Predict the structure.
Amino acid sequence: MTAYDTLQNRFRRLHALNEAAGVLHWDMSTMMPSGGAQARTEQLAVLSVTSHELLVDPQMRDLFEAAEQESGLQQDTWRQANLREMRRRWRHATALDADLVEATMKACKSCEMIWREARPKGDFAAVLPALGEVLKLSREAATAKAEVFDCSMYDALLDQYEPGGSSETIDDIFDDLAEFLPHLLSDVLDWQSQKPEPLALEGPFPLDAQEALAREMMQAVGFNFEHGRLDVSLHPFCGGVPDDVRITTRYDSDDFMKALMGVLHETGHALYERGLPQDWRLQPVGEARGMAVHESQSLLIEMQACRSAEFMAFAAPLARQAFGTEGAAWTPENLLAVYNQVKPDFIRVDADEVTYPAHVILRYRLEKALIEDEMPLAELPEAWNEGLGELLGITPPDDSLGCLQDIHWFDGAWGYFPTYTLGAMAAAQLFAAAKAAEPDIPADIAKGDFSRLMAWLGTNVHAKGSLLTTDELLEQATGKSLDVEIFKGYLANRYLN
Amino acid sequence: MTAYDTLQNRFRRLHALNEAAGVLHWDMSTMMPSGGAQARTEQLAVLSVTSHELLVDPQMRDLFEAAEQESGLQQDTWRQANLREMRRRWRHATALDADLVEATMKACKSCEMIWREARPKGDFAAVLPALGEVLKLSREAATAKAEVFDCSMYDALLDQYEPGGSSETIDDIFDDLAEFLPHLLSDVLDWQSQKPEPLALEGPFPLDAQEALAREMMQAVGFNFEHGRLDVSLHPFCGGVPDDVRITTRYDSDDFMKALMGVLHETGHALYERGLPQDWRLQPVGEARGMAVHESQSLLIEMQACRSAEFMAFAAPLARQAFGTEGAAWTPENLLAVYNQVKPDFIRVDADEVTYPAHVILRYRLEKALIEDEMPLAELPEAWNEGLGELLGITPPDDSLGCLQDIHWFDGAWGYFPTYTLGAMAAAQLFAAAKAAEPDIPADIAKGDFSRLMAWLGTNVHAKGSLLTTDELLEQATGKSLDVEIFKGYLANRYLN
C-alpha cells in the first residue's frame, strides 16, 4: 500500500468517527431526553479524543513526507487536493499541545455557563474574567497556529472556518461595505417609508400545517426525504451526513415565515452536503469547501432564490391552502413586502439582508482587535456600542442587546463571524452567474421548479467539494473572485425597487 | 496510576464507544432514512474496529497481570468483579484472530441476505451452503474459545450471552421441561376447551390512542421519560444507554394487546438498564448480568406482573377510556382470558407462555448438536419437524414456518436461544420471591402502583450489575439457584385455574 493510500484509510476512519459524532450531536438536539446529557457528553468526548489521537499519531509526519514523493500524485488533481486538505487538518491538530486543547475546552465550557447567566442580565462584568481566560487561550492557539501556517494570528484562526481566508482581503471588502451600507440603509428607509405598510399576516398558524408546507417547499427545492429528515430543535441547524442530511427548525405559531425561511436556509446547506462529490465520501477533499461557501448555499436558496417575486408567486397559493386562508394580505406582492422589510435592530440573528453585514463587520473588527491585542477586553461593550452607532445609527440600551448576544466568543469561536457576510456576497455572485448561464431560472422558480438552478450549483459548487480554494471556485463558477460591487448592486437593486 | 485504574480508563473509553454505536443502532432502526444505510454501516464498522483494537492491545495482558497483584483489590468485591468481567471480555476478543472475525462477519452478512430471500419461499436448500459456511466459522470460533475458557464448544458460545452458563445444567432443566410440557399442554387445552370462548376485542384501535395508553402504562410501571423514549421500529427492542434508555414497538390497528404487551416487555428491559449501579456506569461490572437475567426482567413485567388478574383490574378501565369503548368484552376477566389463550403454533415469536419453551428447547438441542458436530446440517429441516412434533404435536407444512423462521443462526448467533427460557424461569422465581418478601405487591399492581415491586427488583437484581454470577444472584435474591419446579408450578397454577 502506498503512503497516500494509508493516509486515505486513516482519514476514512477519522471521518467515520466524526460522522458518528455528528449523528450523536443531531440526536442530542432533537431526540435525547434531558437525562441522557451526561452519558452523551462522555460519548462525544471519547469520540473527540479518539479522532484527535488518530490525527496526531507520530507516524503521520512520515506518511505525509512519503506521500509527497510518490509518483503520479502530482498529475492527479483530486488526490493532490486531498493530500493538501489532509495536511491542513493535521497541521491544525498538531499545532496545539494537548494541555492547551484541554484548558481551552474547560475554559469555554465554564465561560459559556457564566455567559448564559450574564446575558439576560446584561452583566458583562460578570463574564469578563471567564471571557478573558478564553481569549487568552485563543490567543495562545492563534500564536501557535500562526507559526505553523506562517500567517497573522487572526488569519490562523480564520483558517479553521475559511481555509485560506485572509483578513487583508476581508478588511478591503468590509471597509468598502462599511462606507456604502449606511447610505444605502438611509435610502432604503426613505424609500420604504414612501410605500404603503405591508398588510399583517394574521395567525395563529397551526404547527402541523407549517410543517407540511415546509416539507412541500423542501421537496420543491430538491430535498429528498430518502436521504434526510426535518425535525425540531431549539436552534435550527443542518447536521447528519451527506447521504442522510438532517435539518431542523423551530415553529412559531404567530409567524410562519420565520420557520419557513429558516427551513429554506437549512435546505440550501443540506443540498450542498448532498451534492458533495460521491467518489470522495469520507475524504477531506470530499467535504464542503468552508463556512463561506456553505453559507453562500443556504443564503442563495433563502435570500436569492426564495425571497423573490418569482418564488412568492409559487409559494403564496400553497401558503393560502396550507392555512386555509385568503385575502389581500396573502397576495404574492404583500408576502414579498412583508418579508423584505428593512429595519435596523440590535440583534444579529433577527437582522434583514441590508443591516446584517453591519453586525458582522462590527464583530469582525472587534474580534480582530482583541486577538491581535489592539484593544483591552474591558473596553468591548463601549467599542461595540460605538461601532453599532456608526454602522446602523442605533445604540443598544444594555449589553444583553449588545456584546453579550452571540455565543461565539464565549464558546471560543474566534474567527468565524466574517464567513456570514462573505457567504452572503458569494450567494449574490453565484446566483447572478447561474441566471446568466441559465436565463430561465427565475421563470422556473415561479413554477416551483428548482431543477435547473440546482443542476448549475451541483456542477459549479457542490460537486467540487474541497478540490479548489474558495477563490478558485468563485473564479471558475462566476468568472471573478469575490466582488463587492456585485453585492452592493444586488442590495441596491432589490431594496430600492 | 495503578494498573487497575489504567484498565478502568481503557474500559471506560471502550464502553463509551460501544454506547455511541448503540445510539447509532437505535437511530438506524427508528429515525434513519433508507439513503443513510451505507454511511451508517461504515460508521458502525469503524466504531467496532476501534473498540476491538482497544481491547486486543498487546499491553492489556501485562495490565491484567499487574492488576491481579495489586494490593487491596482482593478485598474490594466490586473492583474484583470488575476485573473479572474485563478479563472475560478481553479473553473473548483475543481468542479469535482478526481473519476469522472478518470472515465470520462477511459470511453472516452474505448468509443473512440469502436467508431473507429463502425464508418466504421455504427454500432451505438455497441457504444451506451459506449457512454451512457460517456454521463452519462459528465452530472454529467455538473451538478457539473453548480452549481459552477450558469448556465445551457450545458452552464457549453460550458464555458470550450467558456468562458462566453451562449446557450440562441446561440439559437437565430442558429434559425435565420437555417431559413435563406436553402433558401440561394437553391438560391446558382440555381445560380451556371447557371454558366459554373469550369475547373478541373489536378494532380498529387508532395508533395514537394505543401510543398514549402505552405511555401511561410505562409510567405506571416506573419508566421515566426524562431518561428514555418510546418510538416505533419494525422489530421492537430496548436500546440506548442506562440513563437514556430507548424502547420501541410496532402498532397493529387490529390488535392493541400486541403492542401494549410488547411495550411492557421492553419496559422491563429498560428498567433493568436504568437501575444498573450508578457508581459503575461505563464499567463492565456496571453492565447487565447477561441475557437470561435481562430476559427475566422483561418477562417478569410482561408475563408475571402484567398478564395477571390484578393488572387487568387496573388496565381495563384505562383501555376502555383510551379507545372510547365499553361492553362485556372489556371486563378485566375477559381481557385476561383473551391474552392468556394457549395454542400450539409454528412461530416462536407468536407463541404463548406454555408453548414457548418447546420452541426454545427444540432450537437449543439442534444448535448444540450442530456445534458439537453430532448432526449433519442438511438434516436440520427433518430434525426440526420431528422435534416440534414431539414437543408440540404439530408439524410445519414448510421450512418457512420451520427452521427458516428465526434470524439467529443465519446471522451467526449460536448459543443465544436457551437464554429465553432460562429468563422465563428466572422471572417466575424472582416474582415469587418478591411477593413472598412483599406480600402487598399484587394489591399494589391492581392499583397501578409498581413501586414496591420495582424497589425489590432494584435492590435484588438491577443494582447488582455484574457483581454476581447469575446463579449467585438468584441464590441471594430467591434463596435457591434456578429451580425448574418453580416454573412448572407457576405454569400449572396460571393455566389450569
User: Anything to note?
Assistant: The first strand of chain B starts at residue 228 and ends at 232. Chain B has 20 helices and three strands.
